[in-house]
Amino acid sequence: MTSQSRNKERKPGFLPIETNWFDRLFISVVIWVALSLFWMRFIEPFGLSVWCAAAISAVLGAYIVRKG
């Protein structure tokens, strides 16, 4: 790999570390799991479905992968 292709792979974003698309995908999955567990423990007993957490995680994950 040349340094040019390596620079194209890694782009600056709002995350405080240098990441590629797989790193950002992994961060998104970790956030999805953490938010789902938090939601099931504290929010779901009030009547809101865990599907709301999944939708929030999907939107947040797509944003992180795209712009992170």
Describe the protein's architecture and organization.
By secondary structure, the protein is mainly α. Helices cover about 70% and strands about 0% of the residues. The protein has helices at about 5-10, 20-45, 50-65. Helix 2 (about 20-45) packs antiparallel against helix 3 (about 50-65). The two termini are about 25 Å apart.
Briefly characterize the structure:
The protein is mostly helical and 68 residues long. The chain is 71% helix and 0% strand.
What's the count of strands?
Answer: 0
Ends distance: 23 Å
Strand content: under 5%
- Percent helix range: over 70%
Biggest sheet: strands, sense, closure? none
**What oligomeric state do these chains adopt?**
single chain
> How do the helices and strands follow one another from N- to C-terminus?
HHH
In DSSP terms, counting alpha (H) and pi (I) runs of 4 or more, how many helices? Answer: 3
What gross morphology would you assign? elongated
Q: Runs with pLDDT <50, length 5+?
A: none
Radius of gyration equals 15 Å
Mean pLDDT, rounded to whole units? 86
- Helical/strand content category: mainly alpha
List the helices and strands and how they pair.
Layout: H1 3-9, H2 21-43, H3 50-67
Helix pairs in contact: 2-3
Essential attributes:
71% helix, mainly alpha
